[in-house]
From TrEMBL:
Protein name, UniProt field: Vacuolar iron transporter
Organism: Pisum sativum (Garden pea)
Membrane topology qualifier: Multi-pass membrane protein
Keyword hit for Transmembrane: yes
InterPro entries the UniProt entry points to: Ccc1_fam
Amino acid sequence: MAFQLGARVNGISPNSLEIDIPMHTNSALKTENESNIDYFQRAQWLRAAMLGANDGLITVASLMIGVGAIKEDISVMLLAGFAGLVAGACSMAIGEFVSVYTQYDIEVAQMKREREANNTNGVVDDETMEREKLPNPFQAALASALAFSVGAVMPLLAAAFIKDHRVRMGVVAAVVSLALLVFGGVGALVGKTPVMRSCVRVLIGGWMAMAITFGFTKLIGTTGL
């Protein structure tokens, strides 16, 4: 698109100035912004969320299937699953809080050393902006606990309304498998990694955890150890 500026004399504008204005500026800026996405930083919070959800899903499902290997009572399975949810969420929150707080202390100490060096060299730094970039231990703990709980509640809901023991075990395994595929796919799409590879890796890991828990619990329960 072009505009012409200048006075016209007899229909002729000797001093006219033609300005070309691109019409796709927004599209170009959008493409440039998308290309500048930092997938490494995105992977940090994605890793924590997916780790918490997968832990909750696999841990509680394995507990329920392990208990179900020797006890057919639905109340026992649900009680074991609920105890696993609460204990796992607390463990994830405390572990993440301690880990992130340690990282926070390290980065604060590094900031102090750099600020002292900058002041010695006559350089002024922006401490407020630097502190805003520091990790928040409380947010990390809450996010980990919530992510774990979201994953853990799925097998509980799957088993809550099924009375038949064998059907219940099959439904729990099916729901967990589907959830693992979804988690693996979402993680791959957000992190821009191969979807199929991620889904298969997560699914096989979950199956192994449930199978090992079922096998060992069944062995101990049948032998009376």
